[in-house]
Amino acid sequence: MVPPNNSLLKPLTSSAKRSAPRLQAVIFDVDGTLADTEPEGHRVAFNRAFDEFGLDWFWSVNKYGELLSAAGGKERIRHYAEQHAPELYGRVDLDTWVARLHVLKSDIYASMILAGAIPLRPGVKRLMNELRAVGIRLAIATTTTPSSLDSLIMTHFGHRMLSIFDVVGAGDVVPKKKPAPDIYEWVLRNLELPAAACLVIEDSPIGLAAAQAANLPTVITTSAYTTQDAFPGALAVLTSLGEPDHPSSQLSGEPLSGPCVTASQLIEWHACHKTAASFQHS
Ligand code: XBP
Ligand code: MG
Predict the structure, then answer these.
(1) Count of other CB atoms within 10 angstroms of residue 113
(2) Of 76, 121, 149, 218, whose CB has the highest number of CB atoms within 10 Å?
């Protein structure tokens, strides 16, 4: 753990100091939040896997947007088979068949990511470095497969995911995927922190619902598929985390006080969270 460096923090307002517990961990979603992986990453990998599997399935950009209502790759394949391929959905070995197809898709996806197909979103690496520098722990809560996340982190940080994140909740560690709160509750248990001491960064309504159901204050950075969505109850909604030379635009919620989301901005928002007082007893 990197020791706190309080010189990097701006002073909190007096109301912020009074109202909330200290921010101790930031929990990041992956797809759409760390990187815009869905339209040109996961979707393309699914289509290549279908091709290699001899399926005539093709998920267009628009169709894939609809299919994102089924969180998780295996769940998405099952959902599509149920609607479009009843003969496959009726197989007695459906679970094994879906798992094999999904392993193939995940291998294709990892190769694409390791080849640098998808950049991190603006501000992600900067904010993570800032948070670690002030002693705030990092964690992951995602529906995506652990090997897919590890490829993304290796590619952009040059380290395995567990050297950056204290806790990684990914894939099938919980049976019920987002919008169920289970993955966030699993991460909180493993961080050994109450929800009140944490803050989430998400990109989708499904992710926001999962975090809110676990009582976690949530900042949204909208992604390719979620720019038109509503995010009621989010702490702040922005177009990205931004960089000093690539400013974020605020869409709603707590005001952003500079061009980009910094560690001190997250601390300030977290401290001002209006339901923080009730969280103190959770
Ligand atoms: C988004 C998802 C993922 C990916 C595919 O996850 O629903 O399932 O689309 O990943 P999140 P896998 O926003 O929670 O990161 O194929 O590896 O399941
Ligand atoms: Mg997401």
Answers:
(1) 24
(2) 218
